[in-house]
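pinging the channel bc i need a second pair of eyes. not urgent but kinda urgent?? the chain im working w is below, pasted from the shared doc
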Amino acid sequence: MATRSRSEVLILALSAQVCPTEPTCYTQAVKHGEWRKAMDEELNPLLQNETWCLVPSQSAISSGWVVKQLDVHNAFLNGKLSETVYMKQPPGYIDKQFPNHVCLLKRSLYGLKQAPRAWFNRLHAFLMSAGFKASKTYVSLFYYSQDSSFIYILVYVDDILVMGNDQNLISILLAELSSKFNIRDLGEPGFFHGVETVECDDGILFSQQRYMTDILKHAGMTDCKSLATLISVSKSTVFNADLYDDATQYMSLVGTLQYLTVTRPDLSFAVNQLCQHMHAPTVSHWEQLKRVLRYVKGTITYGLRIRKSVSRDLHAFSDSDWAGCPEDRKSTSGYAIFLGSNIISWVCKKQRIVARSSTKPEYKALAYVCAEKLIITLLETELQMEIYRLILFRLRTN
């Protein structure tokens, strides 16, 4: 994916300077030296990595902790394929000695459906050989421990976060990774998948301010007036059942708001309500979406703050409303879990069944939060963390 994005930027830049229109095929691009150079830059890493070999075409019938952010260049090209996959020779790069041969892939390529799995399996095998263990709770998490030294690795496609309390071990790990893969050390994570890390006096702040700005720009509401509340508290709001004329825009914006809840727990309930009407949004739902965006405009500097906490107690809060949805009378549950003074998990979602008793939604909410607590406990056991005690609260409003 990283290769594609870089090539697209290069193509756009070259097309603006050399060609009046962007070429759509090889025969158009080969007429310009700049395009030919761009194609060579894309193909050379594949050849250097021995991504394929030519075969006859008839064969193809069947605490002082260190945190670093790493980027794997051409990550998918490192994956080794277990299946037999053939492809035609790239136009303009056909072997003159064997023009009728096809490429037998030995490694994965971008765009190949097996590529993500092949790359992850290759990285997984390397980390296992280096003494790491794979988390049973989160498949993208790996951890290593030796005496009092710990290293944790979190993998997201070709982006990797490394955290540990032993600088020497981390340096050895980075050297080993660099010997196997084309690794770029980006230093401390400043901007990771739309989430910016801002240092504060008493901790760090995870902010998506740039992402929120992009959402408002996409919605055409950059200069809108802000609001202090997400949902109208007035009971006299008139509901307009007419379908909104641009359902695609509604779905696109709600989808972007879903990712925003990664650092904004306060948006969870409102975004959950918007997501329930993706299939047929009405004019009133669109108005509700715009209200949420106006609230985002006024809270654009908000984020998720993590502070150093002396307590290791796990506090869990749960709540639910009984038959709160006026359309199907289903209940909505929510919970928030704190490790010390820091929130680490939160959810807001509608229950699947209609409850006849007000007690049942409460028990369902408790079941949800207890299940999440068990997952957190398993994760903390893997990471050799110790939780002193669990305190469970059920919120109640009269």
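so The longest strand covers residues 342-350. and The chain has three domains: 49-185, 206-303, 309-394. — does that match what u expected or am i reading it wrong
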